[in-house]
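Re-run with default settings, no changes from the original entry. Doing this only to confirm the output is reproducible before filing.
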Amino acid sequence: MIAQKKPLTILLASPRGFCAGVDRAIQIVERALERYGRPVYVRHEIVHNRFVVENLEAQGAIFVDELDEVPDDRPVVFSAHGVPKSVPAEATRRNLLYVDATCPLVSKVHREAERHAQSGRTVILIGHAGHPEVIGTMGQLPPGKVVLVEDAAQAETLAVADPDNLAYATQTTLSVDDTTGIVAALRRRFPSIQGPKMEDICYATTNRQAAVKAIAERCDAMVVIGAPNSSNSMRLVEVAANYGCAKSRLVQRAVDMDWEWLGDARRLGITAGASAPELLVDELIEACRTRYEVTVEEVRTTEESVVFKLPRALVA
């Protein structure tokens, strides 16, 4: 006698997956391959997702850590996370053909930081040490002009030479709630601190976190599809846990799913970080269908219509 499958309701968070900046960055690599032929070099992972990187490698992209690995006669693409000013300067010195795939929302943070530094302010950057976006943003300013703060505790003990001449900026992929607390601490301690008119945390990060908040309490378990080095994906795991679904974890793709961990869960929340393709969501749902009698309920909290233009060099 065939054992009957247990029922499983999947609450599918929406929006999820690719954001406009990630979509643009991937298109830039694909267009560069069409225009310039194989290989096209890419400095760092174009976005933080192994599946995406391997797919582009199959098309002829070569991913490298630094520019000195790029031959003089081949084009190079800079990743969506942004790069320090020294990188395009070195590419220009070598006469390399380069295309900058930095997300426009990250570029906005770069411009804000530069504007504050030019006005004589020290910039406090809220972000995670070592993340490529943070390295890129800090690399827009001269040494000593930017100070990194990672959490509220650091904000409470921060010492600066000129407390009346400060501004803050943030990494675009942070937890909205955590960042609100850090900004509140900075504003309390430094009342004259300047900040962006709109928060630097990008629309996609905010929307994906809001979608997770909307379903977390209803879920017995939550899976975030994404990469462990993806800041926005890791924040989604934290948000799920903080908003009522303690059983939350990151999974890169269906083959990595620990079905024993799922246990007797009847309601599974699924979302995907901004650099994870929808294909991986479909793959996980199909894997669930082989084990459970699945019902899918999509919970949409907002519509997204943002599209970023490609660089002119790849459009003409």
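The chain has a mean pLDDT of 96. Residues 36 and 162 are 49 Å apart (CA to CA).
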